[in-house]
Design goal:
4-stranded antiparallel sheet, alpha+beta, 5 helices, about 25% strand, 7 strands
Length: about 160
């Protein structure tokens, strides 16, 4: 593993679809306030500050919904990469601040795969790597890759711990 080069393996392309669906569901929660304001101020519907507040919060909710549901998933996917070697797992992610984590293979305590309803719809799984200090995740891998990678990491960890 050459730490001077960024990891080259990308997560599955369907991550964009899964994250868009998740973002659209999350973004829908921002409509609660505008709906409440419209409901409260609809009897008055005069051009006053109440109506401007309701319209302004509606525009803000639509903007947030579009950002989380349509724009952010594409950027997030482009910034996610990983690589697994006999020495460790190299993760790089981040939108504004790029975060790079290198987990030495001998620090991994166990490896899990997880699949929620949105990931299941697209045939994706995530891998969680637990160390003594924290848990790291490689999201949105196709199911076959996730299982193969989980097995590979487990075998590498077993091999390293047997050598000690």
């Amino acid at each position: 593993m050459d730490i001077s080069q960024i990891p080259s393996i990308r997560i599955h392309q369907d991550a964009i679809k899964a994250w868009k669906l998740s973002g659209l569901i999350f973004g829908a929660t921002f409509y609660v306030i505008p709906i409440y304001l419209w409901f409260i101020f609809s009897p008055t519907l005069g051009m006053n500050m109440d109506l401007f507040l309701a319209i302004g919060s509606s525009i803000l909710a639509i903007t947030i919904h579009i950002f989380f549901g349509l724009i952010l998933p594409n950027i997030r996917w482009k910034r996610w990469s990983y690589e697994v070697s006999e020495k460790g797992i190299d993760l790089q992610r981040g939108i504004i601040i790029t975060k790079r984590t290198i987990i030495p293979i001998n620090r991994v305590q166990h490896v899990d795969t997880a699949q929620g309803p949105i990931y299941r719809r697209y045939g994706l799984s995530s891998i969680s790597l637990s160390t003594a200090a924290t848990t790291h995740e490689i999201p949105a891998l196709d199911d076959e890759t996730a299982i193969a990678l989980r097995t590979m990491i487990s075998d590498l960890v077993r091999k390293v711990k047997e050598d000690v």
